[in-house]
Design goal:
- This protein is α+β, with helices and mostly antiparallel strands.
- It has 6 helices and 3 strands; from the N terminus they run ββααβαααα.
- It has a 3-stranded antiparallel sheet with strand order 2-1-3.
- Helix 1 packs across helix 2.
Length: 136
Protein backbone atom coordinates (compact mmCIF):
# COMPACT_ATOMS: atom_id res chain seq x y z
CA UNK A 1 0.00 0.00 0.00
CA UNK A 2 1.25 3.44 -0.91
CA UNK A 3 1.46 6.33 1.50
CA UNK A 4 -1.04 9.02 0.51
CA UNK A 5 -1.20 12.71 1.31
CA UNK A 6 -4.06 15.10 1.87
CA UNK A 7 -3.01 18.46 0.45
CA UNK A 8 -4.17 21.94 -0.41
CA UNK A 9 -3.23 24.29 -3.22
CA UNK A 10 -2.63 27.88 -2.25
CA UNK A 11 -1.39 31.06 -3.87
CA UNK A 12 1.32 33.35 -2.59
CA UNK A 13 -1.34 36.10 -2.86
CA UNK A 14 -2.98 34.75 0.31
CA UNK A 15 -1.42 31.68 1.87
CA UNK A 16 -4.18 31.52 4.47
CA UNK A 17 -6.80 30.84 1.81
CA UNK A 18 -6.89 27.43 0.14
CA UNK A 19 -7.83 27.00 -3.52
CA UNK A 20 -8.25 23.21 -3.67
CA UNK A 21 -8.09 20.12 -1.44
CA UNK A 22 -6.96 16.79 -2.85
CA UNK A 23 -5.28 13.47 -2.26
CA UNK A 24 -2.14 12.18 -3.92
CA UNK A 25 0.61 9.60 -3.55
CA UNK A 26 3.13 11.91 -5.25
CA UNK A 27 2.88 15.60 -4.26
CA UNK A 28 5.52 16.79 -6.73
CA UNK A 29 3.88 15.07 -9.71
CA UNK A 30 0.45 16.26 -8.59
CA UNK A 31 1.53 19.89 -8.38
CA UNK A 32 3.06 19.55 -11.83
CA UNK A 33 -0.26 18.23 -13.20
CA UNK A 34 -2.20 21.11 -11.61
CA UNK A 35 0.18 23.63 -13.17
CA UNK A 36 -0.05 21.87 -16.54
CA UNK A 37 -3.85 22.13 -16.37
CA UNK A 38 -3.52 25.86 -15.62
CA UNK A 39 -1.60 26.25 -18.88
CA UNK A 40 -4.09 24.09 -20.82
CA UNK A 41 -7.50 25.11 -19.46
CA UNK A 42 -9.24 23.86 -22.61
CA UNK A 43 -8.43 20.23 -21.72
CA UNK A 44 -8.52 20.51 -17.92
CA UNK A 45 -10.87 18.18 -16.04
CA UNK A 46 -11.73 21.09 -13.71
CA UNK A 47 -11.70 24.33 -15.74
CA UNK A 48 -12.72 26.42 -12.71
CA UNK A 49 -9.63 25.31 -10.76
CA UNK A 50 -7.41 25.61 -13.84
CA UNK A 51 -8.61 29.16 -14.56
CA UNK A 52 -8.18 30.15 -10.93
CA UNK A 53 -4.60 28.89 -10.96
CA UNK A 54 -3.98 30.46 -14.37
CA UNK A 55 -5.19 33.86 -13.11
CA UNK A 56 -2.99 33.66 -10.01
CA UNK A 57 0.06 32.76 -12.11
CA UNK A 58 -0.69 35.51 -14.66
CA UNK A 59 -0.82 38.04 -11.81
CA UNK A 60 2.68 36.96 -10.77
CA UNK A 61 1.77 34.81 -7.77
CA UNK A 62 3.26 31.41 -6.98
CA UNK A 63 1.10 28.31 -6.57
CA UNK A 64 2.18 25.94 -3.82
CA UNK A 65 1.05 22.49 -2.77
CA UNK A 66 1.04 22.12 1.01
CA UNK A 67 0.66 18.67 2.55
CA UNK A 68 -1.72 18.77 5.51
CA UNK A 69 -2.04 15.06 6.29
CA UNK A 70 -0.17 11.82 5.69
CA UNK A 71 -2.08 8.54 5.47
CA UNK A 72 -0.83 4.99 5.54
CA UNK A 73 -2.91 4.17 2.45
CA UNK A 74 -4.98 5.80 -0.29
CA UNK A 75 -8.27 4.33 0.89
CA UNK A 76 -8.00 6.15 4.24
CA UNK A 77 -7.06 9.40 2.50
CA UNK A 78 -10.00 9.20 0.10
CA UNK A 79 -12.33 8.27 2.96
CA UNK A 80 -11.38 11.54 4.71
CA UNK A 81 -11.41 13.70 1.56
CA UNK A 82 -15.12 14.51 1.64
CA UNK A 83 -14.88 15.43 5.33
CA UNK A 84 -11.97 17.82 4.80
CA UNK A 85 -13.50 19.50 1.76
CA UNK A 86 -16.63 20.12 3.80
CA UNK A 87 -14.69 21.36 6.84
CA UNK A 88 -12.49 23.70 4.80
CA UNK A 89 -15.52 25.17 3.03
CA UNK A 90 -17.25 25.71 6.37
CA UNK A 91 -14.10 27.48 7.58
CA UNK A 92 -14.47 29.94 4.69
CA UNK A 93 -12.06 28.56 2.11
CA UNK A 94 -13.39 29.07 -1.43
CA UNK A 95 -12.31 25.69 -2.74
CA UNK A 96 -12.56 25.01 -6.45
CA UNK A 97 -13.31 21.31 -5.94
CA UNK A 98 -16.19 20.33 -8.23
CA UNK A 99 -17.03 17.15 -6.32
CA UNK A 100 -17.55 16.65 -2.60
CA UNK A 101 -14.58 14.25 -2.48
CA UNK A 102 -13.95 10.63 -1.68
CA UNK A 103 -14.02 9.49 -5.31
CA UNK A 104 -10.36 9.71 -6.13
CA UNK A 105 -8.84 11.35 -9.15
CA UNK A 106 -10.28 9.26 -11.92
CA UNK A 107 -7.51 10.04 -14.38
CA UNK A 108 -4.55 9.62 -12.04
CA UNK A 109 -5.80 6.96 -9.68
CA UNK A 110 -7.96 4.60 -11.75
CA UNK A 111 -5.77 1.57 -11.10
CA UNK A 112 -5.69 2.05 -7.34
CA UNK A 113 -9.40 2.83 -7.25
CA UNK A 114 -10.18 -0.57 -8.72
CA UNK A 115 -8.73 -1.98 -5.49
CA UNK A 116 -11.56 -0.28 -3.60
CA UNK A 117 -14.51 -2.71 -3.49
CA UNK A 118 -17.10 0.09 -3.32
CA UNK A 119 -15.69 1.84 -6.40
CA UNK A 120 -15.27 -1.39 -8.38
CA UNK A 121 -18.82 -2.53 -7.58
CA UNK A 122 -20.31 0.83 -8.57
CA UNK A 123 -18.39 0.88 -11.87
CA UNK A 124 -19.31 -2.69 -12.77
CA UNK A 125 -22.96 -2.13 -11.87
CA UNK A 126 -23.14 1.00 -14.03
CA UNK A 127 -21.66 -0.90 -16.99
CA UNK A 128 -24.33 -3.57 -16.68
CA UNK A 129 -27.16 -1.05 -16.53
CA UNK A 130 -29.60 -0.52 -19.42
CA UNK A 131 -28.56 3.15 -19.58
CA UNK A 132 -24.93 2.19 -20.25
CA UNK A 133 -25.93 -0.34 -22.91
CA UNK A 134 -28.02 2.29 -24.74
CA UNK A 135 -24.92 4.46 -25.22
CA UNK A 136 -22.76 1.66 -26.61
Amino acid sequence: MAIAYGYVLLSSRDEDSYIYYGVTVNPVARLTSHLYAARHVDIADNPWKARTLQNELAAGYVIRLQVLFQYSDEESAYSDEEYWISQLRQAGHRLTNLKPGGLGGLSAHTVSLWKRPDFRAKQLASRNSPEFSEHM
